[in-house]
Amino acid sequence: MAATLGVIILKEMFDLTDEAALDNFEFNASWQYALNVEPDEAHVCQKTLHNFRVKMSEAEEQGILTCSALFDEIAGAIIKDKGLKIGKQRLDSTHIRSNMAVLTRLGLFTHTITAFVKKLRKQHPRLFEALPKGIYERYIDREGYFVDSPSSDSRRRLSQCAADVWRLADRFRGHRSVSGMPSYLRLKRLLEEQCAIEDDDPTDPDGDGPEGVPVRPKDPKVEKIPPTPLQGSDDDATYGHKGKGYQAQVAETCDPENEIEVLTHVSVEGAHESDQHATIPVLDDLEQKDCKPDTLLADTNYGRGQNIVDAARCGVDLVSPSCGPKPEAEEGDFILDDFMFSSGGQRIEHRPMGQEPVEQGAQSKGRRDARMDAKRCGRCSWPRRCPARRSDRDTAVTLTWLPSAGATSARRHRERTKEFKDGYRLPSGIEATNSEYKRFYGGGRLRVRGSPAVHRMVKFKFMALNIRRWTNPARKTQNQAA
User: Fold this and answer.
1) Residue 265: which of 293, 286, 294 has the closest Cα?
2) Are 457 and 2 in contact (CB under 8 A)?
3) Are residues 317 and 423 in the same domain?
4) pLDDT confidence of residue 129
5) Residue 62 above 80 pLDDT?
6) How far apart are CA 402 and CA 369, in angstroms?
7) What one-character-per-residue DSSP string does 201-238 give?
8) How far apart are CA 16 and CA 10, in angstroms?
9) pTM higher than 0.85, yes or no?
10) What pLDDT was estimated at residue 240?
11) What's the chain's Rg over C-alpha atoms?
12) Same domain, 424 and 472
């Protein structure tokens, strides 16, 4: 088992195919030395390697951590061996594409319909022969039908595909055997995600053209298409602002006194996921592994107000630029940003005129309030231009706010200081890590598809990156001695 794991790690370290990795294991003395295997024992069957990876993925899906536990164990060993400081870490995400075909919307329709019709011909030839002649011509004997169409006809072609999807889905709805075929279920999913079904009854349900059916392609500019639609070759991949595929959340140490920096967290998610929702899960994972930092540096998207508040409750200072647009105020008006809040947004340190509140406390639904001295507020020249309000039943002036809004306001003040600007130079280093992962380890475009395989391969590639960083100093010393 140890030798098989070693082969997988070295395979990802040098970005090799299975065949090339097994050849190196069998004939490369350096691989045999690194894995502590005798030459006459250095053999693993390719099928064994495949089955081993499948078992690991199945165990991960069942909650039995295999490659994740191995990644954590290797990272912990490096931290202990090098005496690395983990109090300061940085977080970022990087886009990943699996071995998937990048299809246009028209290509997705034609690919899905063709796959279903071919399966129908193989499994139910009599039902296939009963299909309209146009279906056969467009998706089986379709040379030149879609690929040679001018761009001006693309909308017409898409409408035709949408009509064909509806007709096929409606034709076999409730059929005992066809309705359970995976290719038919994909056809139904495509209809639900990419098409809008009108309320009108079909006037020509058995016809051959795009007219006469209560369906049309959705307009992406007006109608919402889910971020997790069919992708043709990898249904687990999703759409995000960086493109189609997946993304990995990556955290690594960044203390200037460390000899090397080690990755402490790697997780894979859909490309549609927002970085705003990744901060706290990453901190929870690091805390479970006893790798929780004191300071976490991240990009703007990670630094929304609620994340700053939740990180502070975990004992972590989340250092990132404020997230969201700065509120604008008319000349002479006071806004929430004119009050000085604590870094966690829980307390007001002083008001715009410099005085501290008389009393502060918690309200319902997580809100906070601060009571001001009514006499001092009465001498203010801008009582009607201030967000604090006087209660009819109380002599005090009260300001109410959400901690997330207070934390964002405090961050806007903090990011203007020289201390923040100097300290925020460190996060840019993780871009070099993402670049190293993609250039040297082939992490930008993987050889596998499907969420389980992508999760496993990304973990092993980052394991290889950590191990290479771990051994690089020794290799440099050896080269200098030679």
Assistant:
1) 286
2) no
3) yes
4) 92
5) yes
6) 9
7) PPS-TT-SSSTTSSEEE--TTTS---SS---SS-TT-E
8) 8
9) no
10) 84
11) 30
12) yes
